[in-house]
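Reopening this ticket.

The earlier resolution said the output was attached, but the attachment link was broken on my side. Pasting everything inline this time so it's all in one place.
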Amino acid sequence: MRRPMVFAAAGFGFGVYAAHMAELGQAAWVTLLLTAVSLSLVLKALPVKKTYFVQIVLFLCVFCAGGLLTQSCEDHVDPLVRKAGTRTTVTGMITSISRKDETYQLKVKSPEGMVLVSYRGKLEHYRKLTGKQAELRGEVFLPQQRRNAKCFDYRQYLRTCGIQTQMTADSLVPVTGREDRFAQMVSRIRGGFEEKLERCADHETRGMILAMLFGDKSALSQEIYENFQKNGIAHILAVSGLHIGILYGFLAFLWRGKKGLVFHVTVSGALLFYAALAEFSPSVVRAAVMIAIHLAANVLHRRYDLLSAAAFTFLLMLCVNPMQLFHTGFQLSFLAIASLGVVLPFIQQIYQGIFLSSMGIQMGMLPYTAYVFNHISLGAFFINVPVVFLAGLLLPVGISAMVISCVSESLFRLCVLFLQQGCQILTMLNDLVYADGRTSFDVVSPPLFFLAAYYGILFLGVSEKGRILFLRREWKKLAACGALAMSLAAWTAAAGEDGFSKAQVVFVDVGQGDCVHVKTPEGKHYLLDGGGSLRYDVGKKVLKPYLLKNGVRRLDGAFVTHLHEDHYGGIRSLAKQGMVDSIGVYQGCQVMEGQLEQETGARFFYLHKGQRVTLGKGVYLDILAPEKKTKQEYLEMARDKEDENQSSLVMKLTYGKFSMLMTGDIDQEGEKDLTDRYRSGQLRCDILKVAHHGSKYSSSEEFIRAVSPSVAVFQVGKNNFGHPAQTVIEKYRQIGIMIYRNDTSGAIGIRGETGGKGICAQKMID
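Inline output:
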């Protein structure tokens, strides 16, 4: 078998993925592994030709080994996890520390596990704390899980970094104990360089240099990073394998003598030091290990194979921490190498020119970057060539400046001036190609099945083995390989399914606010309210990622119960970004039409009691309140902002056999008006969106019994208003109504059961 290491890495990786998704338990994986090993021994003893059977069994052995290691890692729980929700004292070594504004973020390695700490106190010369022991006191808590379907899972991300808990510390005291001299040296060198850079460079240049050299984006403006990201060149601002490759090439260029053992040891030490400066990010570790393998191959006079080296590195890194497989940086780094090793040689047979590498990388990376980042750039194909060239100049100068800063202030300033001009050229080039967003556009995440099938077919079709089968016209083998690739794609998609794709109505978790996503049988999408916050842009940071990752590029419409920020802010933001152009509000808002259209760019339509809006087949909204009034009354309502809750649209959604009542922020007085008007059962429904986030001034017992829901949903997040009130929760419980809350369960998915006999509710977080 050619490249057995690639075969082993694939089996191990699939085992890691399977264990993470299936959660079988260590005993099950041990049983599977022993079975696979037994099969291999039996096959070895049989005196028949059995090449493919042996390969399959060996694949199963490696697969089970990966699964067993991952399950043991999943089952390991740091002692600190058991202290979540309590105030405690943690003593350990500070392995890294960074600062943004007035907050310090520390990684602390204690006997009870690694913890990520936020500290807002004063720290003089904070970089000198790296590598030292400290005692911290504060509240330990678990990282936030995925709140909405297919969105970012911060807890899993930290787990890929070996961290299971977080802490908000209000006390930090250095203590004597074991120290990490290497970490202290690295931190002081980097800290000294940053201080000198702050004195010599403007804020924008400083942010870009620190991002390019160390992957530290704390000083980089969000606008610049987003523009680079949308243009497909954000990898320049995050230390990656490209940076390691440039550094290696620079050192090889400087070393004029014979590149013997001394050169290899020197380069290895320099790469280790640079990886430490970049805090050993997965892409940096991958590149450093592969270059170390390349150097070892030169010393031992052995042939270096890119894919085999990548596969060995892949195995090595997963053996250290199998959860790294789910780190985006890890995935992107190895996907880039796979593209260079498999796709590039195929394209080379057709085209050889300046855009060769860019073509190979884009062909391999584009679907995955669309899946993860939800945008693609037409300019990325062209801009990456000059950008990589510029990076090849700026990175060596930046590293040299770090050394020169310890020797000569004037030479250091000269280097900073060069870096400043280079950063300006880089920004100008990015702005030119970005063209105010005209060359970059948002896309929905491709289905997981499509993504897996694409890479299976791509790597099969352009690989050396695939091309040989094609040239030999071995169609049966090609068909079998294709069927296997499609089967693995189907298994991958099924394993990654969270069930929310089948939900017909989703109570989206937007924090302290209301938002309901309605999906019609025809594939139309509507939002009823959109959350909002004065502290951050809910539309951009929560709703847009949620919609794009769940296949919604553009909404077919939105409805806003009233114009308070926690209901309207997210819709307004989406409208500004072109994701919704039709918004339904109460007719009283018509007196503000000019202002509303100016701030959103959307078209508004106006609703009042008695109207019905059809959303799809068997899906419609009945407007139950408020009533239509005179223009003068609307003007008076517009002036009385405090009373806007009482003019909330009350909408009853009928979806096939089940129904839902949206109540906005009405109080008990508003509920009484509804019960007085609708005495013949029009308020009855299966699902009640609890009024005003469960405020104590809403949810009268009379109203609850008039609606008589089987499920009550509290759309609530962290707040200072006391929502939901415990007395309100008890009212629903005493009546026997099932309660769901966004703050404790994340998003809530609802679908009608088969045959229309009730509803099925699903929580994002159990």
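Reporter confirms the inline version is readable. DSSP finds 26 helices and 22 strands in the chain. Residues 152 and 225 are 19 Å apart (CA to CA).
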